[in-house]
């Protein structure tokens, strides 16, 4: 029985793993095993490889040393894991095997030299003679001493190493593909035909693209406003198998280096927890991953890492990050040790550092989730700028190994410190000047006259010359200042003498309004306005910042200065100015004005403005208007614009007073939102809503009930408001049903009733109900169901496509971060955020100012405001600006340094097709067809004309016909998109006839005459080509007949003139 147990152990022995690679310079095996009980034998079985190499290469000799106590099979093999095409599938394969017999009669130690022969795909590089190469992971060199009874089975199933009880294994490396030899022995000097063939073949071989082991996460400065906004990145996996496998092996022993340049104004102003984001790693479900770097209110850094089970390990540093200066933060991490280094100072020569060893192991998969620079979700951020950020993957770098950016980098071009000091100096001047006038007023009460600086200077000179006392109790004003401060000086003096000194905000507003008046007088006054705008900017007037940025960026009567314009935009956006943020987003969206194209960075700004739209629209301001895209070429839209004295408004008012329900509803909405050229008038709108509700119309009752419930334009009355909403709901109005659900959820706290009303309203197609249900599923508030962002996204998509603003914001948000089932869609997120952001009332106000100026025939003023709208990226602003520059009335386009016609038309054509006007497409088609940019491009011209023709524009169809007449070959896909049958494409005449018929039959009446004439001309030419001979004979005969008749007429005329004339002899 004991013998059987021993045999069982022998046959199923489990090897012992020894994780020692090298001791005292001697290379040791990773796996060693021996047969149980052999330690008692005098000559036990052994096996080893003498001096095993670190790198295996084809053709090398290996020495195996072994001893056999019985007859044995000795084997040597090389194995490796070959990665399949499908990710995650690895299979160990035999790359080499050599086996031989060992006789037990000679129990002495034996040695055998074995030549290593690897497969061609592993041994050689890729060239003419070896078209395929294989990447091998974790190669191992193994030797084994096997009982012969197992050899037939092991030879078939390749499991000799597993069956052997005496064996040894070594971890090896194989040469990288580019370091391998060429097959065929052509490493010396091959004959030239073979050399040429090899070179040709190499050019056909696919070469892995270069993959950097770093990610430039932020390359251009980004403004971080202290709220939950930041740059969101997702790191890709390596396409190179070796790099990717190496990355996977370091999940539980991560190595990385993070370098960030920042300019912090406030550490953590808006956080309830006292922590604000600098950068962190987060999963799609908002779970924090490794690493996380937060800053607290004291400026100390909170650094956190995570384990594989999501347990977090954190530490707080003693050192503080500086404020109001650029500094570099370098975080180096290796396994469980991190080191933080901060570099600052005027010349970045001041360095402070700290380090910490995290207890236990940490875990990091940098392709999981998202990396955030700033903040995202509900986490607030610091307030300031991120100038540059780079993440080095699987590399631990010292700070001196990371080069400093160029002094001409965009973050240094912003010149933040100098700009701040200049504003501080200006504000000190205002303070001292104010003190002077205050003292002057006090001195005047003491009947003492105070004099200017120059009078006081003359007085001191006279005192030195004559020794008389010319002293005065009047304070000296200080050094004389530039005449650019003249208006402000008069403003301060006038205000103090009236005892009404304005606040800083009022000073900024007055300076801005004065600058606007200068510009509205004409562009020749821009140079007078710019100093006032700069002064207003120092007092945080954000409208002044944006107007100043627009003037400097486009070079309106001044030299264009893109870096300075960018600085004012970033400062305004930092203070949450909507237009400044939209302008920054627009530049990053298309890569304009020296700003690199970066969709994820544009999302930072679009998302902020989109989040403010609903609140801004519901916050009543007299200056707020509805954002309307009115094109100056659309006469119908222009006729609809009105004012309180306009004919359109007066007619609507007359109809409404006579009880016409449609007029009451129309005028109520016009006044409520401030559309069609009208100002917002909530009180008047409420009265018209009340008149509509009296008609018992369900929608009118709902509108009036909501106004009463919220107290917009009227005193809040919940009871009466709910009565109107309930009456509307009784008539099955989906909007009213949703309102009842909203009230049940927010006031009655009755979730069952809320769900009932929301579901019923949703079945009726109500977008608000879909949005509310989406929120319940997103936050896990739907009874009996867990949180589900995918179901929520479906509801949000339904609501957003029906113009529900908040739903559009959530569609953008969820597409940016991704959900459990859906990967992130950056483009979709950007477009939804932009679509919602462009509904902000501040943008509508600028468009309204431009339209009003145009209707008043103030072209230069209209150009200014449309220039501001175009810089913010609104399509109607770009279109109208391009059209004004094209018209160039009074030469106003010459006032702008940058080209404004083709640039703006081109920008409008980059938008989604449904937003692009055919006129812009036709203009860009003309640009490419006539070569306005210096080079003709008929293919692009045809594409632009085709897009316009698909919008049923006859001019575009006519232009395509002209291109065909000019002999231009147009791709058949163009005619297919215009639904022109193939039989009509058989020749140019049938094609042109079809094209001009489409043009003639267009709904636009102005196209009938030119298209008809072109059609007749083509038909005549076709008839001429078909019946050329007959027409030539007929034309010859007709010409002859006409000639004969003409000669006859001439002859008869001459004969008539020769008759004698009767003379009167009397």
From TrEMBL:
Key words of the record: Signal
InterPro entries: ConA-like_dom_sf, Sel-1L3, Sel1-like, TPR-like_helical_dom_sf
Signal peptide limits: 1-25
One Pfam family in the UniProt entry: Sel1
Keyword Signal: yes
Gene3D superfamilies: Tetratricopeptide repeat domain
Listed name of the protein: Protein sel-1-like 3
Organism name: Mizuhopecten yessoensis (Japanese scallop)
